[in-house]
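Dear support,

We are seeing what looks like truncated structure output for some complexes. This example has two components. We would appreciate it if you could run it in full and send us the complete token output so we can diff it against ours.
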Amino acid sequence: MSFLNIFKTDATRHTTMYSGHVVPDAVRCVQCGICSYNCPIGIDVRAHVWREQPVKHSECLTCGECVARCPRGVLRFVQTDLFERRDE
Amino acid sequence: MRYVIIGAGVAGYSALQAIRSVDKTGEIVMISDDPNGYYSRPGLAYYLTGELDDKALYPNKQEDYKKLNFKYIRGRVTKIMREDRTLELDGKTLLTYSKLLVAVGARATPLDVPGSKLEGVVKLDHLADAKNIVKLARGGRSAVVVGGGITALELTEGLIARGMKVHYLLRGDHYWSNVLEKGESEVVEHRLQEEGVQLHRQAEIKEIVGKRNQVSEVRLQDGRVIKCDLVAYAIGIRPCMELVKDIGLKLDRGILADEHLQTSDPDIYAAGDVAQVFDPLTGRAVLDSLWNPAREQGKVAGLNMAGRKTAYLKSPPFNVTRLAGLTTTIIGTVGRGYDLDLFGIARGDSETWRDMPDAIVAQNGFDVNHMRLLLGEKTLLGAVIMGDQKLSWPLQKMIVGAADISPIREQLMKPNAPVADLIADFWVNWRQNADL
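Here is the complete output from our reference environment:
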């Protein structure tokens, strides 16, 4: 896990940090856990994928670490509806 | 009501969740002799390369299991007595069942050459095997990898990541020749060589020789000798049939199961790698050794066991893997014929992939970003996507959703067609209509 990665300043991150969230395509997932293992704040991304739920976690930084690390293309960013409430 | 699940893999765990979702009070017993219980078996590849530690392979916490309110027995079922609906555990204890799920998986086909029992001859079935490999793999040592499919390359990549020199033996001329096209195999082989892997073609092991019961070299049929400290094999897998072979169930290469995952005994269900399930795509019962079908089969079996009649609709088989570091997606029917390196199928594999009909192929060039599409009359039948995965997700959805590609079929068939652009443009429109 690279904590420093959350300070990266690429264009994708700037966009997603305020307007995106991570959604899974569960049929691709084999529950290997690389996503959860690399999440800098310890969100259990894998558990969201098993339940086929988007990662709308109040503490998610949308740093993109899980999306980039997943070896199977399970995760991707989508635009968040800014008026939608985030769950815990 | 007592439900018994034999096996703690994803099929067994998925069945457990499904049963509990319907029957809130019935007794559920899960039995497994794997000391590690439920973990991500495909994740072992990433544990071998050091991308994960072993603890990260377990998806569930104790409280997740508590919620499911079931009994876990670590032990081995030694007999199924169908007439009494009773199991024998470890040769002594008896346990009755109302509904039984057999989800015992598959294990590596043994390497049948002299010396295969020596210390240092390894396979990759379980977490215990992976830990053994990690223990034995030390920098500067040499390993021989024999076999094919995804597991052979997982072993190769894992051993390289741990600093070993790897010799990869191919019995024929090319890697995974009944799933990949020659050009695709060559891309993988080239990348392996760039990683420092020494490929040995037309290489058939005659014997493994040891010193003080420890592997020291491999001798090939044609006289070549390769000094090594480790031999890792992945020559295929076989469904674990020992438990069911003499109890009168209908069997073929696996336990035959209908669309409800029910076997020829209405109280016994089968799911996962041990189940041979009817496939509407090919019109016959096939074996898969893929995570998601095992999960789906377990779920459907569990729902049916608990009385909620549900049919399993097999999708075109699909996997995403890394071949020599190159992300590769395989969907539907893409190959045919035989692969000299595998007996049957490997892990992360499907028999359906080898059922390629007489389809027309559209593809772009054989560089690291490569795509091959199998075109049917109106739909895409299969795809291999190597490298750039931007179209992997769209193609998966279009194949599973049987998208009518008639509007672009003619264009796709033209020589040097801009295949990726045509698919990308088509996807944008199809996706809106399919509401994805």
